[in-house]
Each structure stands twice: as C-alpha cells, then as structure tokens.
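Subject: for your reference before the review

Hello V.,

The reviewers asked for a structural picture of the protein, and I figured it would be easier to keep everything in one thread rather than splitting it across files. Below is the amino acid sequence we used in the manuscript, unchanged from the supplementary table.
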Amino acid sequence: LESGFPQPELQRVGERFLRIRALRDVSWIVKAAGRDSPRFGEIAVSEGDAIPDGIDEFWHRVGAGYALATIRDECYLAWRYCQHPDVRYTVFEARSAGDLRGVAIVRDGGPDPRLLTLMEWMTAPGDLEAEHALLARLTDAARARGLAYLGIWIPLAFPLARHLQERHGFF
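And here is what came back from the structure prediction:
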C-alpha cells in the first residue's frame, strides 16, 4: 500500500491476512473555517453534484505531475462520489474564461461532525489563484453549513501536505 491509516489494529489485520504493509501513515490536517478567506483573481467557483465537464483533459494535464496516483477521470470520480449509496458528496469546480482550473470534492463530517472533509483536491501545480479561489469557496461553504473546519487526510510526506500548511493555514 502507498499509505495507510495509523491505527495499529488495522495495520496488523492488513499485515496478517492480506500480507500488505503501509509505507507511510496518513495524517489529518485541518484549517479553521471561522474567518473570511481572501479572494484572488477572476476565478468563478461553482458548487454541484456532478463531475465537471472537461475533467478527463484536466486530469491528464494535472495528473502527469504525479509519479503514482489513481486515475481521477470522470468514470472513477462519478463511481467514487456521485454514485455513492450512503454519503452525499459536493463537487466544487473553479473556472476562468471557461477553462477548468481546479476541482475539490467534499463531504460533511467524516471522522468528526464539525468538519467539511476534502476528499479530492486538484489544481495545476503552481496555480495559486485556483487554490485560493477554491479554498475561499470551501471556507464559505463550511461556515454556511455550521462547520468549524476544513480537513483532509494526507500523508505528511506528500509535498501537498506541506504546501497546504505553509501557504493556506492548515495545521
């Protein structure tokens, strides 16, 4: 496995019965949703329940920067989030001049009922305008739902974890 949850019981089951080991633990980082996030650029962020048009081309461009990743094309994302039988997910898409610049998929709650949990986060490397626009809209959505935090499970060794902490105030 690339990563795994840090519960020793789960890791022992995986090792014993599946003969797999986690290479690194995933950790939980959060961002308080209690204050306004700054707005940057002319990026419109919309909220819905469908996978955005153009996601396959966007993933082809963004995913090329990962050495190893699950392909996050329309087929996978629709199966994983839109067709989920028990959990409602919300899709946020950031666009400027019609071009897809970022996607975030969230759910209310998760490991804690005070959270808006980020399940997917996709922006082109270095596209800080799209990141800021998405995070501002997610912060607004969390507050509107009465939720105190944005949160994401992520291996701390991933560059994105450090980036979210240093640039965007996750802790």
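For the response letter, the relevant points are probably these. The two ends are 25 Å apart (CA to CA). The longest strand covers residues 99-108.

Happy to draft the paragraph if you're swamped.

O.
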